[in-house]
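Form 12-C: Joint structure prediction
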Amino acid sequence: MNGAESLVKTLLASGVDTCFANPGTSEMHFVAALDDHPDMNCILCLFEGGVSGAADGYFRMKGDVSATLLHLAPGFGNAFGNTHNARKAGSGMVHVVGNHAGRHMKYESPLRGDVPGVAGAVSHWVRESADATDVAADGAAAIRAARSKNGQIATLILPADTAWEAGSAPLVAEPAPAPDRPSAAQVEAAAAALTQPGAILYIGRGAMFGPARRLAGQIAAHTGARLMADTFFARAERGAGTPVMGQLPYPVPPKMEMLKDATQIICVGNNRPVAFFAYPDRPSLPEPPTARVHELCDPQMDAPWTIQALAQALDIPADAPFNAQPLALPDAPTGAVTLEKVGASLAHYLPENAIVMNESITSSFVVMPPTVGARPHDLLTGTGGSIGICLPCATGAAVAAPDRKVLALTGDGSAMYTLQSLWTMAREQLDVTVVVFANRGYQILHGELNDVGAGQPGRNAARMFDIVEPQLDWVSLARGHGVPATRADTMEAFNKALADGFASDGPSLIELVCP
Amino acid sequence: MNGAESLVKTLLASGVDTCFANPGTSEMHFVAALDDHPDMNCILCLFEGGVSGAADGYFRMKGDVSATLLHLAPGFGNAFGNTHNARKAGSGMVHVVGNHAGRHMKYESPLRGDVPGVAGAVSHWVRESADATDVAADGAAAIRAARSKNGQIATLILPADTAWEAGSAPLVAEPAPAPDRPSAAQVEAAAAALTQPGAILYIGRGAMFGPARRLAGQIAAHTGARLMADTFFARAERGAGTPVMGQLPYPVPPKMEMLKDATQIICVGNNRPVAFFAYPDRPSLPEPPTARVHELCDPQMDAPWTIQALAQALDIPADAPFNAQPLALPDAPTGAVTLEKVGASLAHYLPENAIVMNESITSSFVVMPPTVGARPHDLLTGTGGSIGICLPCATGAAVAAPDRKVLALTGDGSAMYTLQSLWTMAREQLDVTVVVFANRGYQILHGELNDVGAGQPGRNAARMFDIVEPQLDWVSLARGHGVPATRADTMEAFNKALADGFASDGPSLIELVCP
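Section 2 - Result
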């Protein structure tokens, strides 16, 4: 058994059975080993940003790691942006990156590069196997690292000779250590703070879905605290029946406004609130200086346990009430397209138990609020601010949850970053309905240019913000990737395309011509 | 004047007047400054791999640096692959990367990342401005670094507050230091070696075009040495009238065969020959152990001066003859498509003074040889083994040389990596004819799997090598980006599309259905 085989067997023995891949020559023995193990589900992405983004979406819905296969330093570089997003989502993954054989590294070959350097800039854990006999143990350590602290980026670098030389027997990865928990004193203090007027229970990660989410709603109802989430998050249960939860807006002034009466902010599964960007005359921290921020349980700690501990400290009975989101299904609007109507239409048609991946950026500020009372669903958002996560993440989510409908909402600028994922959706016949908000540019930058006080756009700015001359034709782009598509410029057309998308089993795309 | 303005003025004052860009919020003040300076030619790319690849192509044809505009760590990550390729091509560029304001970096915001880490893994020079008053001087230093040693990757990281706060007066970058030269003794020894039987003059970079290339041919003719180049190179003059030059093949066995009689290998503008990858039973160094390798002038040294010095040491008169490539224009073939016929067709139609960017990988081994006697042209190739350089590099080359026809030859797997560059070609109405060799997969990997002794592909390997189910439709993909396209599955159709492409002024794409 060579090193590559020892790794594949270690992955499978450890329960890692999905591999998003774009391999090259330095990974050939790994490919051969995968070939001998058809129980490993290998999914080709035509660009590595699709690989890392899919591994992110997979983790968010599966709650466990997949492997990836990347080709040397540039391959990791191509995966960097969505690995950054995955890191911010707290998604674990095992990146397997080939490198040159050790003896080859002393010569200036075309693909010699700094794999540990580029990987180290975004990974929580990096190791380069020194010998083929180490690969099984290193692989097991990588899996354990990827599963630690609720999910981490673990990168295992395999010099080609460690793949082709004789390896050791495969191993089973040891269980990841339990994530850290706050002390009893910290929980007591936070519980007391929650009962103060102006308290906010500010949740993220594992407090956003499942039993912890319901319990968080019960805590809020019991204490009178506001239940809130960040603007962007990895995964949240949403829609009818879920505990009502506020969400911080993206721009700084309304964010400050929403927090202006806050006295106590108890963070569970979340870092403290912070502005997305810094601006010349605005603070980085949006809460009033008088508010006390309890960094009780950061995203790498045990949020479900912490919520449970708070509920116990507050003596909340199991059947305590919470403020449940009522079902609100608007009629499907007709006529000219507006973003408000699109939101109503989404709320009307969204099937129960759908997964919604939203990276529609500016459009979402208007589109998403009407969907809060839709049938219950999971909502995923871009977490790291690196655009191009929507299509890959939706791909990975659909692989992880093949029995669920996936709706991918994306701006046109964002979708262009990783449009190659459309092909993977077609190849795997994933049940994804993609809506591209074709507003012909990076609309958020118009607002940002104004917000930094940099004035109105002139020719150079307009040419960098606006995707016009020529316009993108998303129907052709989708068809080129093997995904059926339609253009919608009325609500009737949008409604029909959306209903058709949800009714069909494979992928489809709607180019929504919108303001 | 804020820091951003001081940088834009420094760039312009230093002769850097082209900026390939995909900006974000942290670069808004830089965008505003660009807006005030319409003499800066800002070119939007819809993905950062298009940005760095265009800067590469621009440098190769212009011989000078452009600036780029990238958005924090993920933006640099997206540009990483083609920055790697540019580094291997010896192309200089000034990457300007925004970062969070210093005061914002202590909080875990979505876009906080390790910009110096990812940049440092591929840049020759990295600096993060500490203060707005440093930006002009840091910018001038970056430009000088990018122009040093024949071209380097210089990355200037600008925290947002250094862009918006008051800066210093703009500066003019000091001239780059002259590149190093070999000693007189080294030149003498190399000149003597060139007269030995079995000598090879192995050239790259600045010895591949212009007067040095002709002189290298005269040296070869005078000494009897073989004139040779590497498999992949940044830029070479080629076609009728250029000195005949051999080229190392990609696979190791024929590379060893071509070098088996070598006794002296004199490297000028080149590193020593090396296998592209390591393989279990093949050496990294392809020459026989008895050959002496003279590492006379590495790619960062002064190749034109070294060639001149060798000619002087050998007393070669200015009008010495050289072995010139004869013009060989085959008839345009008809009938079924074969790669041999495609090569003949390219040779038939290629206009004089065209720029050919070739990343057709496996196809090129058959397609390119018949074009060696075509009308004189410049040939650019992928230099770093990171696929996806063709379309961006052709874009940058066309921007640098707007009066020349550009032919971009690319495999389908490679083109998918950075297909967004098609839109920039359409936006800028660049005179590029793109040929996509639609052989439906990463054909090179089939050969590599065999070459590493890993056996025949099974289901998992085939699903990672073959881009089928569904097939890509390049005509739709191109149209989606605003580029007119045709599919050619006969030589007649290919010939017509190619002639039409060269006859028109804007971009066009041919999907060549080929074996």
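Section 3 - Comments
Chain A has three domains: 3-164, 184-313, 339-513. Residues 72-89 of chain A form the longest helix (18 residues).
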